[in-house]
Amino acid sequence: MSEPTAYELYRSGIDLLERHDHHAAALPLRRARDLEPTTGMVREALGRALFGAQRYREAAEEFGVLVELEPVNHYAQFCLGRALQLQGRHAEARPPLTMAALLQPQRADYAVYRDRTLAALAGDAPAPEDRPAPAVDPGADEPPPGSRRSGAGPWGAPATEAGGGATDAGSGSGGSDATGDDVDPERADGPPEDLGGPPPRA
């Protein structure tokens, strides 16, 4: 029996993400990443799974690589910043959160999380995540508009799916629950009260 392809592993991981099974999703997505280490959509999906599983250090590593691959991807910048922020690494979180807000100035959630880190660095921040704020949720299961959750262009997916996989570097974002603890890249365009979780993209 042949080994599953990177695309098959990716789709398996996405299916698990859509069922909110972040821990399980990380397994096939890691294998897909090992087969396609420079494919941004795989790195993004794995980062979302790790973020949703509250494995923020590992999520930051994946989003960090994605930022290197796609420097002007605002979604990747935001998710990297959030993963670092949730570890209390505010000095490291400031550059990507600032970049995300610069790339998408209309995104109130990006500005809110950037300002939280700036306040933490200034020593006058409120208790971590103690107030609702607009957010992107990297671990959300309903990807925002423009997300590449369904695409797989690099692996020759059907035309109906391939479009999602070839997202340009400037796309991406997310949304989340009302606690502000997580970021969901897939619900980035939700209303201000839609916060939390790991980031999906928009």
TrEMBL record:
Organism equals freshwater metagenome
Q: What is this protein called?
A: Unannotated protein
Extract the ranges annotated as region (Disordered). Answer: 122-202
Biased composition, class Low complexity, residue ranges: 147-161
Q: What is the lineage of its organism?
A: unclassified sequences, metagenomes, ecological metagenomes
Which residues fall in a compositionally biased region of kind Gly residues? 162-177
